[in-house]
Amino acid sequence: MPDFHVTSPAVPLPKMPTQLENAMDTLIQVFHHYSGKEGDKYKLNKGELKQLLTSELTEFLSCQKDPQLVDKIMRDLDTNKDNEVDFNEFVVLVAALTVACNDFFEEQLKNTGI
User: Fold this and answer.
1) Residue ranges of the EF-hand domain (predicted)?
2) What is the DSSP string of the chain?
3) Per CATH, the architecture of 19-112 is what?
4) pTM for the full model?
């Protein structure tokens, strides 16, 4: 019987997803977890968006004092004005918040002299 090693090219190992691939998968899963609750299962209505923001961006919302924040976010994200947020519109929010967090992080590093 031939001696096959796990590293043999004839038997490729399954590749583990990268950190970025995991992050992308998580974004998709989080969006669809909330979008499937009411109406169009591929879009967030205002209630689903509020639930997502409240559950997934707790720290961000806890700093906000504006009671109309969810309405404003909904208006800003809903570029096609269908009163729902699709995945493409949702990613804009995530990207904008990520950029803001990175800018804050860089500013903190500059202030500490690192």
Assistant:
1) 65-100
2) -----TT-TTSPPPPPPPHHHHHHHHHHHHHHHHHTSSS-TTEE-HHHHHHHHHHH-HHHHHT---TTHHHHHHHHH-TT-SSSEEHHHHHHHHHHHHHHHHHHHHHHHHHHT-
3) Orthogonal Bundle (1.10)
4) 0.76
